[in-house]
Specification:
It contains five helices and 22 strands. It has about 400 residues and is of the alpha+beta class. It has three domains: about 180 residues, Efflux pump adaptor protein, beta barrel domain (Elongation Factor Tu (Ef-tu), domain 3); about 50 residues, no CATH class; about 110 residues.
Length: about 400
């Protein structure tokens, strides 16, 4: 009996130890870990950004007023330079062109009439009258010089001769010089009026001024628009700019022509390469950041205006630094940055001083030596000294 009791006690103790061990194991929090990374590379200046058009969006409008009878592209559609965008009802402008054409034809006829010489029979009549008046004047002058003709009578013959001479000269030249000039000016004026009305007719069709995509449509078919009222807005998507505000402490590292890597949250599987195109010389007074524009080729149109981007400019300077994944950094109760260090199945909170971003990592200026294992997943459930184990186990 005593022996059996001893065996039962031993079994109870063993069972209790097993249960405690199992309970302890169940208190371990699964985590993921990674080593601190030592970077020896070109300095990367990182910041957020937004995809923008290199040029301001173009708002296309008619130069004349009228009723819209056709709009060709839809919103989001691609248009090539010179392609038709929209068209107004041309009826009124066609009538105006025809009216101006008739007036120009009339002015042309008047000009040609004034410019050409008189008919041959009219010229011959003027010549005969001139010759007759000339002979008569010569006879009367001989009589006047001999004193046989009164001065007043002689002056009448002289005036008739001079008039016949002018009439003959006009018949030879085809009209007065000032009449020709006036007819020519009227013809030129009619031609200018016709060209003006023809241009207004041509302006009833609106064409794209460059390649791009239609980002907005402001009117619909059937609406009446005034001259200058926007019809569509177009933007160029190849290339595009990624505009970013770089912090004051990093702007000294950035120069035009430097390579940059662009990550788009909406396109997680792609990294775009660009070049710094613009580095502004004045800071935004509200944010104390400097505008940097990075040109990115976009032949497939994957990048859309307004997309959020992460920018990493590869500077000329090289640097050595410790980095950890950005998502491994937490905030302690005072709001200071910290990471959890994995050591002997325990998680220990370690305050750190962070620096600039490096791809998806962040620089650790102080607080780590570089040989630690950092917890990168599961740390939101941890407290200092918590029991942990790698998730793989």
């Amino acid at each position: 009996m005593k022996k059996s009791l001893t065996i039962l006690i031993i079994l109870a103790v063993l069972w209790g130890c097993g249960s405690n061990k199992k309970a302890v194991e169940e208190n371990f929090i699964p985590v993921k870990t990674t080593a601190v990374n030592m970077v020896d590379d070109h300095l990367r200046v990182s910041a957020g950004g937004t995809v923008t058009s290199q040029d301001s969006p173009s708002k296309l409008s008619f130069l004349v007023a009228g009723r819209v009878v056709r709009i060709v592209p839809d919103e989001g559609g691609f248009v090539k330079k010179g392609s038709l965008i929209a068209e107004l009802d041309p009826a009124d402008y066609i009538i105006a062109v025809r009216r101006s054409k008739a007036q120009a034809d009339m002015a042309k006829a008047a000009f040609e009439k004034a410019d050409r010489p008189v008919r041959s029979e009219q010229l011959e009549q003027a010549r005969i009258a001139y010759e007759r008046s000339k002979d008569e004047h010569s006879r009367m002058k001989m009589l006047y010089d001999a004193g046989s003709l009164a001065p007043n009578d002689y002056l009448k013959f002289k005036a008739a001769y001079e008039s016949a001479e002018r009439q003959y000269e006009m018949a030879q030249t085809g009209g007065q010089k000032e009449d020709k000039q006036q007819a020519a000016a009227a013809y030129r004026q009619a031609q200018a009026a016709l060209a003006y009305e023809q241009k207004r007719l041509n302006d009833t069709k609106l064409y794209a001024v460059n390649d791009g995509y239609v980002s907005k449509r402001f009117i619909a078919e059937g609406e009446t628009v005034s001259s200058g009222y926007p019809v569509v807005e177009t933007v160029c998507l190849d290339p595009v700019d990624v505009s970013s505000g770089m912090p004051e402490k990093d702007i000294r590292f950035i120069k035009t022509g430097q390579k940059a890597e662009i990550s788009i949250s909406a396109l997680p599987d792609k990294v775009f390469e660009g070049r710094v195109r613009v580095v502004n010389v004045s800071a935004d007074p509200a944010t104390r950041t400097y505008l940097v524009k990075i040109e990115v080729s976009n032949p497939d149109g994957l990048l859309k205006i307004g997309m959020a981007a992460d920018v990493a400019v590869v500077a000329d300077e090289k640097t050595k630094m410790l980095t950890v994944p950005l998502n491994s950094v937490v905030r302690d109760t005072q709001g200071a940055p910290a990471v959890f260090v994995f050591k002997e199945n325990r998680a220990y909170a370690q305050k750190v001083e962070t620096g600039r971003l490096y791809n998806t990592d962040i620089e650790i200026k102080s607080g780590l030596k570089g040989d630690e294992l950092i917890i990168t997943a599961g740390q939101e459930r941890l407290r200092d000294g918590a029991a942990v184990k790698p998730a793989a186990e």
